[in-house]
Amino acid sequence: MSGTPRIYFDNNATTRVAPAVVEAMLPYLTEQWGNPSSPYQHGRVLVQPIDAAREKVAALIHADTQAVVFTSCGTESINTAINSALLTQPGKRHCITTAVEHSATLKCCEALVRRGYEVTILPVETDGSLDLKELECAIRPDTAIVSTLWANNETGVLFPVEEIAAICRKHHVLYHIDAVQTPGKLDIDVETLGVDFLSLSAHKLNGPKGIGLLYVKPHTPFWPHLLGGQQEQGRRGGTENVPYIIAFGKAAELAMQITPAKRSKLAALRDRLESGLLQRIEGSTRNGNAAHRLPNTTNLAFVGVESEAVLMLLDQLGICVSSGSACTTGSAAPSHVLTAMGLNAVQARGSLRFSLGFESTEAEVDYVLEQLPAIIETLRIAASPRKYAVK
Ligand code: PLP
Prior knowledge:
The chain is of the alpha/beta class. Helix content is 41%, strand content 14%. It has helices at residues 19-25, 27-30, 41-44, 47-60, 74-87, 103-114, 132-138, 161-170, 190-193, 231-234, 242-256, 260-280, 307-316, 336-340, 345-349, 362-383, 385-388; strands at 7-8, 68-71, 94-98, 118-122, 143-149, 174-178, 197-201, 212-216, 284-286, 297-302, 319-320, 351-355. The structure holds pyridoxal-5'-phosphate. Pyridoxal-5'-phosphate binds next to helix 5.
């Protein structure tokens, strides 16, 4: 069994479950294991802790508690929002999304096309940003929903979600935000955003995998994705995952304690890593807009190497980074996000994502700065000895 990695710079894939989160959920696995829908005490006592957890996650996004639906993950939340928008507006058979979305959105949209719906997939600029005029032009009388990321999981690039929400309101189109990468790193206020649906997943904010939420703006017509019992006020069938709901509540409470100073420190650490690598490694470039992005993410291209080989060598040193979304790792195709930004296959295949966490340190950054240049050089020489041979 392998232990904790020495250096974990892959926090966009998942985060470590915080000890306080484990502590909060444990009693609900060991002693309080009842079913909250049962009529007797052993079950009924669970209603209050679930309500308390719902209040905490609602506070994280500044929502009314009634607007929060617990789901099994971000993927379920996204699928629920998009399908609900179509099923509650049967006359509308068109959706809009972007080319750089997480596979949860893109695969959901592909399935819709197979079922006879129409989907417009908006391109992005070379810096990963979106042309809002193009988005507005794509809206049609039969558009049911626009669904976009807030923060891209591969590049960290942020979309101007408040402006997109305003465009959608103007055209009476529902708007869903995939905000899975944002908690703790950005302030989330669903009122200010003016959004109809918003998805989160606990494992990106030091909670466990397998629990997410969907915010549904009050009075928005809603169609449940999972039909069954009356849990979640009839909006999601299935016995509540009590320990994970409690854990999500605790994780939300911790995320709310992250101050702007902590975010700035994280951004400074990311910048130290990014500028250090760009300086030390010839021919390296940053992928994505530097100004509008998450404070923890940098995506860099090192032409002349295969990122999978770099990952393996870094892994041997106990360093975890990634070559894109964890959900598409193992696929031979270059990242759809980077290719949508205009990178060719060689550039995309030579790109790495570094996503730091609030517990990352300067010493860890400096160790990567020390190790990675030599790894890239070795791999470049192995791949093209004539081009990269030592001068
Ligand atoms: N959306 C984004 C931006 C993500 O990064 C992820 C997970 O990597 C998801 C959605 C899917 O979330 P989950 O793993 O909880 O299904």
